[in-house]
Amino acid sequence: MNRALENQDNLQPAAAKPSLLRRRQFLGAAGLLAGTAVSRAWGATNRDWTGNAPTRYPDPDVVVLDPRFEKYKVATTSIQRLWQGSLWAEGTAWCAAGQYLVFSDIPNDRQLRWLEDDGRVSVMRKPAGNSNGNTFDYQGRQISCEHGNRRVVRYELNGSTTVLADHWQGKRLNAPNDVVVHPDGGIWFTDPGYGSMGNYEGNKGELLIKEAIYRIDPASGKMDLVADTLSKPNGICFSPDYKRLYVADSGGTVPKPIWVWDVADGKRLKNGQRFVSMAASELSGSNTAFTGNQNGLADGIRCDIDGNVWAGAGWVGDGYDGVHIFAPDGARIGLIRLPEICANLCFGGPKRNRLFMAGSTSLYAVHVETQGAHIT
């Protein structure tokens, strides 16, 4: 473990510390017209992420791929790196009551808190069970997926911890990953098992059950398996009206897709189908400079109030890694390019119009002209 990460001085906003990190920034030709791929010649330049040098508006790394994304791009703002110092950042969730963002640093076994008032980051919970996904329920209680303990928990307002799920049919869960809450109080979560595949993000152990998506009933506490057809069900979110459920599959064959189902009676899934592919070739067109893995994947996902799906993406490289935005019809309409893989994201801030992005070692944010569809 890097001892510097445990130094509280390291929990300052990135703009308050010097940094040598420079990023590559890709310049495109015309981008994508509605529904039509256009070949893109990728170039490179430098961008200063310390906050000392301004970014010329409009931010060139908030990319319009389809005219439908124009209205969501704010011309007089830029992507900011709010903080740097994690080993693998995940689990962004906004607490409206406390006006703070909680996020997980899984390998360092801690949950961090970014405060709205002064941008300060501090350790909120350690140890944290190597927690990954976080959310808040309609009573303001935090719910977390703990990799290391193979369970889903709720941190009560009195400081106690309630275990919501840790077994399925007598066998331990693999390692719950991401979680969302339905208005009826039902808790939906994914269990791909990444936290049990090694000791870096949890505790290495055998996967005892098939990777699946589950629902916890609010009245009985009973857990039901709602789908086990995906290889590695990862990020999860509802549509604005809660009639559809989106889940990113980060395992199995390539290209790795995001899937969508109809939600029946708020409890069951039906009519599952592939929503979008995350293939790099579908982003860049036929003339691509991408090297290595051409089949990126989506991790954390969230919907805005118009039903667009915002997906943290990565594992391809510069020009792809960041956030991909999809319209309800599945068209990729926008892109937010980051210098790191984006594992997770959420909407927050007083107006719920600020997109927070967990980018591997860093926390990023950008204002957008839309709002998150749900409370976190």
How is the secondary structure organized here?
Layout: E1 22-24, E2 46-48, E3 62-64, E4 80-95, E5 100-105, E6 110-115, E7 121-125, E8 131-136, E9 142-146, E10 151-155, E11 161-165, E12 167-168, E13 171-172, E14 179-181, E15 187-191, E16 212-216, E17 223-227, E18 233-238, E19 244-249, E20 257-264, E21 268-277, H1 280-284, E22 297-303, E23 309-314, E24 322-326, E25 332-337, E26 344-348, E27 354-367
Antiparallel strand pairs: 1-2, 3-25, 4-5, 4-27, 5-6, 6-7, 8-9, 9-10, 10-11, 12-13, 14-15, 15-16, 16-17, 18-19, 19-20, 20-21, 22-23, 23-24, 24-25, 26-27
Unreliable runs, pLDDT <50, ≥5 residues? 1-10, 12-45, 285-289
Strand order of the largest sheet: 7-6-5-4-27-26
What would you call the shape? globular
Do you know the CATH topology?
Neuraminidase
Average of per-residue pLDDT values = 87
Provide the structure class.
Answer: mainly beta
Helix content: under 10%
Give me the number of helical elements: 1
What top-tier CATH class fits best?
Mainly Beta
Tell me the count of domains. Answer: 1
The oligomerization state is single chain
CATH architecture: 6 Propeller
**Distance N terminus to C terminus?**
31 Å
| CATH homologous superfamily designation | TolB, C-terminal domain
Residues in β-strands, percent: 35-45%
Largest sheet composition: 6 strands, antiparallel
Secondary-structure element string: EEEEEEEEEEEEEEEEEEEEEHEEEEEE
